[in-house]
Amino acid sequence: MFSSAVRTGSTTSGLRRLMTAGLLTAVAANGLTTFAAPQAGAASSVDGPITRSEVLARAQYWVDKHVPYSQSVYAPDPQGRGYRSDCSGYVSMAWHLGTSLVTQTLPQVSTQISYDDLLPGDALDKESEHVVLFDHWVDGAHTLAQVYTEPDFGQFAKHENWTRSTLLSEGYHAYRYKKIVNDVAQPQPLQIGAITGNGGLFHTIRNTDGTWAGGFGDVDTQAGPLDIVAADGALTGGDMQIVAISRDGKLHHTARLANGNWLPWGDVNAQTGASFTAADVAVASVDNELNIVVTDTDGTVWHAIRHLDESWTAFGNVNVEAGSADGKAVKVSATAVHSPSGSDTDLHVAVTNADGKIWHTGRKHEDGTWLPFGDVEVQAGPLAKVADIAIAGTGVDLQMLAVTADGKIFHTGRKSDGTWLPFGDVIAATGTPLASNAVTIDAAGEPNGDLHVVIGTADGKVVHTARKTDATWLPFGDVESQTSNPGTVVNVTAA
């Protein structure tokens, strides 16, 4: 049985494009995590545990095979086992069940959950009529879901968008198969940007095996010339999105696409209507949407979003929502952190004020409200005046790095319950001294929980270290000795 009122038409999103390229992006403990998509030869057994990526790959199999809807005909899964090719048979096939259940009996092998807890491979079931397989939320507000469905007689298995409002009004309930398991997160390459004193931006990549992909590449030659004083980057799918500040305080956007090509610089001020003069910028990927946080020369904190459809919101004044950071904000960093259940993603923001103190806030995904700014040093311990900060999400935890004015580096973490770890000395933890004082810093969390840290030093060099999941640190490594010399580096970004 079916209900056609909720459908909004077939679409191919950024996530869908990744799947067809052999990659699958899914929500996991560290934000946007990339998994190798399983091939037709499934890893699961009938009625056994099955990963979310395999569930989606099995669903995609019937889409690719153009399997028609039928309440009497059985169609093969990738291994040749037959399943009734109606809506509930389709979900039964995707979950690799031993038989084709119906909409009324699928809840017997699953657990009811909330809409905002939906993850790839869960189901939306109107028990008396129709069921679809959930892929992902198309938008950060969770108003539009992309689903797999066998819709009706005369139609074929589809991948399309359904609205949340109609799903709710028509009585669809969210369910999670009892034997579905999260995929094991795999490491991703680390992308590094280095801003030089003459306004250049250079880019390189650290491979997952610890080797480097080559020398620093000049972004000006790819995206166009720009006189840059600050920049930050974040991954949305396979693309590295970068927002930069030019020397005149204007904001600009480019992206290194998954295929290695760069987009031309775009004028963010023109897209958002921003009239302030930017001083520092941070970006974060929240549900694959680019969140931009800016401090201006007056010390105000601003926030905007670049949506999946490439449209931009206007900048909103964060201080109006979250209060003051005890004075003018100077430096800013932003990241996405998952809820304890892994089903939702919040934006976290840290700033330093003119006194060199660190303040933290967060934007709740569920309703867009902001937490009040809180004094981090009250929670994690006092530091000398802070010159730069970086935050990154690892799992459900927030990691924070601080560079003090005397060139030292400290680390703390905010646990999922809101408590903070004491600041620890990173240089001491690595067991290797820096040849020159730290000046600027950025960090990126790995899907497996590792934390990468990139440092710009007073002599204009770039240094890398990492904090492993067991809380040990790698020795400092000279990035330029393994890549190339981009010039005198004054700022860094990592994603």
UniProtKB/TrEMBL annotation:
Residues 1-36 form the signal peptide. Keywords: Signal. SUPFAM superfamilies: Fucose-specific lectin. This is Uncharacterized protein.
